[in-house]
Amino acid sequence: MGALGWALTGAGSIVVDLISAPSIHPPTDRPAAGRPTQRLIGVYEGGRPGRTVVAIGALHGNEPAGIDAIEAVLAELNRRGVDMAGSLVGVVGNLQATVAEQRYLERDLNRGWQPESCARVATPRPDESPEDAEQRELLQVIAPLEARDPAPLVFLDLHSTSGPAAPFAIIPDIARNRALALPLPIPTVLGLAEIIDGAMLPCMVERGHMGVAVEGGQHDDPQTAARLEAIVWLSLVNLGCLRPEQVPDLPDHRARLRRASIGLPPAVRILHRHGLDEHEAFEMEPGFSNFHPVRRGQALARDRDGPVLAPCDGLVMLPRYQGQGSDGFFLGTRVTQRWLMLSAAARRGRLERLLPLWPGLRVDPADPQRVLYRGHRPPAAMLRMLRLLGFHGMRPRPPELEFFRYTP
């Protein structure tokens, strides 16, 4: 049994049998319906030191394309016996919901990853939800990998969408995640991880790791799994786990993603989330897809109170065309390459030290990644500077307004 096999032994019901490196735990057998029955999709451990990459498919159970993509990469690595640096670990996110072909059973598994929630699910309880058990098993997979590898783990969180969609990446906006997302030939969405509370990837980033979530396309689009497979291959190359010549059809993988992203901006910053209460009557108007431009006042959806209007000009992101989930839609704005370069330079220069020069703005003495504003409506110039420095998150903290970012 290889080193990674020992690391994962005892992680819930997961046991990996690795004989020597490079080696693999084969992808799980599928039942007749085509759904996995085990948490672990497979493990490929290279013979050279390198990053541990954790690829997660179906964190939402109605999004199986990520599982297909991970299986395809693991099968090809195994078939060719590639001398890889580091390891690739493939994991099913919400196993019970995947078997049931539902987004989730009782709660969204891509929520509830705050430290206190992770501590709560660590011990089984009689009244726990199926997703509590799913989250506990995922944490049991991650913990031995953290103990084994002193370097940050790399998470690839693979998703698909209910509506028609081009592929795009989502990151908590810090430098190590940009280094993973921006080389991919698809748009990168900034500010979404900060506006959604309790998602899995930000939790891993706050634990010191790095990662990217990728939306590959619509659930039932046959191209979605192929795009997500391309994301895994390109990420392994960008991380130095594989040399370009070790990846079959690497130019085709790049071209596939580029074709799907023609005409789209290099990045989008989220401006607005339309959140939903549980069981709220909500229905998107037909015809919206990711990056669809809309004008302020345009009808985007309907709920129990009537039409839901766009509060600002922007680009529609993640319109909800399925029956589950607490996000109706998001609105974003285009981000240029120049802005990305400027923001990177501002962060390297630690320009956040100048923020207290703004009247009413101060750094939280308990946490330098949070700044507090007391005053009238925040000036537009101050907001632009905060976003430039990665402070995309904003929430009330009476009598002040709190802006926050993830730990660089």
Instruction: Give the overall silhouette.
Output: globular
In spatial order, strands of the major sheet run 1-2-4-3-5-8-6-7-9-15-14-11
By secondary-structure content and strand pairing, the structural class works out as alpha+beta
Measured on Cα atoms, how large is the radius of gyration? 21 Å
Largest sheet: number of strands, sense, barrel closure? 12 strands, mixed
**CATH architecture assignment name of the largest domain:** 3-Layer(aba) Sandwich
Number of strand elements: 19
Tally of contiguous helical segments: 12
Beta-strand percentage range: 25-35%
Rounded mean pLDDT score: 91
Distance N terminus to C terminus? Answer: 36 Å
Per the CATH scheme, the topology name of the largest domain is: Aminopeptidase
Tags for this entry?
3 domains; single chain; 12-stranded mixed beta sheet; alpha+beta; OB fold (Dihydrolipoamide Acetyltransferase, E2P); 12 helices; 19 strands; 408 residues; globular; Aminopeptidase; 4-stranded antiparallel beta sheet
3D architecture notes:
It is a single chain. By secondary structure, this protein is of the alpha+beta class. The protein folds into three domains: 3-260, 3-Layer(aba) Sandwich (Aminopeptidase), CATH 3.40.630.10; 267-335, RNA polymerase II/Efflux pump adaptor protein, barrel-sandwich hybrid domain (OB fold (Dihydrolipoamide Acetyltransferase, E2P), Beta Barrel), CATH 2.40.50; 353-404, no CATH class. It is built from twelve helices and 19 strands. It has helices at residues 3-8, 65-80, 95-100, 115-121, 130-148, 175-181, 192-195, 200-206, 222-238, 250-260, 337-348, 380-388, and strands at 23-25, 40-45, 48-57, 85-92, 154-161, 168-170, 188-190, 210-218, 267-275, 282-284, 292-294, 299-303, 306-309, 314-317, 327-335, 361-363, 370-373, 393-397, 400-404. A twelve-stranded mixed β-sheet has the order 1-2-4-3-5-8-6-7-9-15-14-11, with helices on both faces. It has a four-stranded antiparallel β-sheet with strand order 16-17-19-18, with no helix packed on it. Strands 10-12-13 form a three-stranded antiparallel β-sheet, with no helix packed on it. It is globular, with a radius of gyration of 21 Å.
